[in-house]
Amino acid sequence: TADISTISEKTLSSILEKNRTYSTQGKVADYIPELGKMDAKAIAFSVVDQNGKVFNTGDVHKKFTMQSISKIIALMVAVRERGEADVFAKMGYFGSEKPFNHFSNLETTGKPLNPMMNAGAIYTTSLISGAGEQAFIKVLDMVRYITKNQNIDYSKSVYESEKSTGHRNRGMFYLMKNNGLISGNEDQLDNYFKQCSIELTAEDLAKIGYFFAHQCVRFDGDSKYKSAEVAKLIESQMLTAGMYEFSGEYSRMVGLPSKSGVGGGIAVSVPGKMGIGVFSPALDQHGNSLAGYHMILDLVKQYNLSIF
Ligand code: GLN
């Protein structure tokens, strides 16, 4: 295998070209109507190396919504504010063997399985303090900080689309309210829909991957939020539940903490080393980017990046 210091834009573009065809085999998410409008052929691949240097290839300027990748940022904000024990007092650390929108275990133990599936993520966002959209603003500000990109904002049209069709998520929200986990009003659910609608690029995702790979130190070395413990928590959640019910097989094949979103992005942390960001909106049956997965897999094989 090759040394990671030899990674270049050329490496990335040859992996991208090899896997471009997968974008015709997956399917763009359309259960959120606005997402159905995405260009299935768009594809991008980014790496932030050990020294914080950025390598980009493909549709590098193409923006897409974070969707479930926002869940790791919300978890970080909630844990920094309330402490891990409090955040997990009524939520599990279970790995995922259920689809991301499954109701487990709200009807049995009453507790969401983990903060990466929708139920636990909606709950986690509801734990962040502040009236109205304050909790969302905290998540947005953290994304802007980690990526050092103040231009990042959310897509109003995707947000409206999710809000008007997200009845399953609304059902989970009210079931958790019934169970006594959630005390606020629907503003808290709106904050979840808004965080899912944050728009960014593959490069921004690679910077997020880098951040958690480096104990919450930013790619430019800024260590304002440095915490080995927070990074360990986030990476362990990414590893065990970040790719939903595919997480187990994914950890065998790729072996890296990763978080996907139905917008087609995946953020990957190579602990102590680098961050990877991929984008291709055609998804597999689990809701993970198909070409994105194959690009990550090839990079991992070429440079022997699995943590195992
Ligand atoms: N906003 C999406 C939803 O709640 C996020 C799901 C995902 O990216 N897997 O359904």
UniProtKB/TrEMBL annotation:
Source organism superkingdom: Bacteria
EC number annotated for this UniProt entry: 3.5.1.2
GO terms, molecular function: glutaminase activity
Transmembrane stretches, start-end: none
Ligand binding (substrate): 68, 118, 162, 169, 192, 244, 262
Presence of keyword Metal-binding: no
UniProt GO BP: glutamate biosynthetic process; L-glutamine catabolic process
InterPro entries for this protein: Beta-lactam/transpept-like, Glutaminase
Gene3D superfamilies xref list: DD-peptidase/beta-lactamase superfamily
UniProt keyword terms in alphabetical order: Acetylation, Hydrolase, Signal
The reaction(s) this protein catalyses: L-glutamine + H2O = L-glutamate + NH4(+)
Subunit structure, as described in the record: Homotetramer.
UniProt similarity note: Belongs to the glutaminase family.
Protein name, entry field: Glutaminase
Upper taxonomic lineage: Bacteria, Pseudomonadati, Bacteroidota, Flavobacteriia, Flavobacteriales
Gene name of this polypeptide: glsA
